[in-house]
Amino acid sequence: MAGTIELFTDSDECFRFRIKAQDGTVVAVSVAFEEKAAAIAGISALREYAGMGLVTDACPAALPVEPVRAIAPAPCVIPAVQHVRGKPFHQAAPHTTVPAPGRTAWSGAA
Fold it and tell me: I need a surface site. Which of 18, 29, 71, 95 has the fewest CB within 10 A?
């Protein structure tokens, strides 16, 4: 499961959203929005731009850089085993090619 975005109202009764990591850790909190529709539009903008966003370091150069705590990657989903000429794909020769259905394999002759 990936992280989540949670829409909530703060103590001033403004709408905000927070981004939570897979383990529930709050990663970021939005600015306050007076209307729920504006907060939802903010979530849409976040989803549209966050993946492509460039990181700009606006910190003074004198500040030390602390190591970033790594976030564990999502578990890998292994696809079903494919069979090549009666053998599981991972046991077939690495250069083995399988012709498309209805076609013959390339013979190497021009």
Answer: 95
Which residues are registered as beta bridge partners of 84? 87
Dist. CA 19–CA 26, nearest whole Å: 6
Cβ pair 16, 39 in contact under 8 A: yes
3-state secondary structure 39-96: HHHHHHHHHHHHHHCCCCCCCCCCCCCCCCCCCCCCCCCCCCCCEECCEEHHHCCCCC
Rounded to two decimals, the pTM is 0.50
What's the sign of the alpha-carbon dihedral 30, 36, 40, 42? negative
CB-based contact 7:17 (threshold 8 Å): yes
Q: Give the model confidence (pLDDT) of 39-92 as tens digits.
A: 999 999 988 887 777 878 888 877 666 776 766 666 655 555 554 555 554 554
- The tokens for 63 are 């500040």
The three-state secondary structure class of 21 is coil
